[in-house]
Design a protein that fits this description.
Elements lengths: L1 H9 L2 H8 L10 H19 L8 H19 L5 H16 L29 H8 L14
Helix pairs in contact: 1-4, 3-4, 3-5, 4-5
Length: 148
């Protein structure tokens, strides 16, 4: 179980003892309960995201370890919202694990009724008028006709 190893690598024995045992002062890790939490998270990966857990993928490790801890809390009913936290974890994280293929990419769409405006050009440009604006009459140093 790769996920089980990842959980044990990231959480020390004291933390796992606290998460898996209900008896105060217990010095052992309940491997059965830990194994059930791991199998639930791996099943969530397959059922909700259609991927198998991959220990080489850092996103899988991050989401999987968090899921195991939340599942252990839900088993122990550590807080009133433990089951709601588990459901929230599935709803928030499983869509991120789904593989994107060419058939399920999100295409840009718009429901706006606005359309891009096509620029309107004048039928013809008045070059003489444009030149009069740029160089007013009488301010031109050059002769109007070239010298022969």
């Amino acid at each position: 179980m790769a996920l089980l190893d990842d959980v044990k690598d990231r959480y020390g024995p004291a933390q796992l003892e606290q998460l898996t045992n209900n008896a105060p002062g217990s010095l052992t890790i309940d491997d059965t309960l830990l194994g059930k939490a791991v199998s639930d998270v791996e099943a969530a990966f397959v059922l909700k995201a259609n991927v198998t857990y991959d220990t080489a993928d850092s996103v899988h490790v991050l989401i999987g370890v968090e899921g195991v801890v939340l599942r252990l809390c839900a088993f122990k009913r550590e807080s009133k919202s433990a089951l709601a936290d588990w459901d929230r974890w599935i709803a928030e994280n499983m869509p991120d694990l789904r593989m994107q293929t060419h058939n399920n990419r999100i295409s840009p769409r718009s429901t706006s009724g606005r359309r891009p405006e096509v620029p309107r050009y004048q039928e013809h440009m008045d070059m003489d008028g444009l030149m009069r604006e740029l160089v007013p009459t009488g301010h031109n140093k050059w002769p109007s006709r070239p010298a022969n």
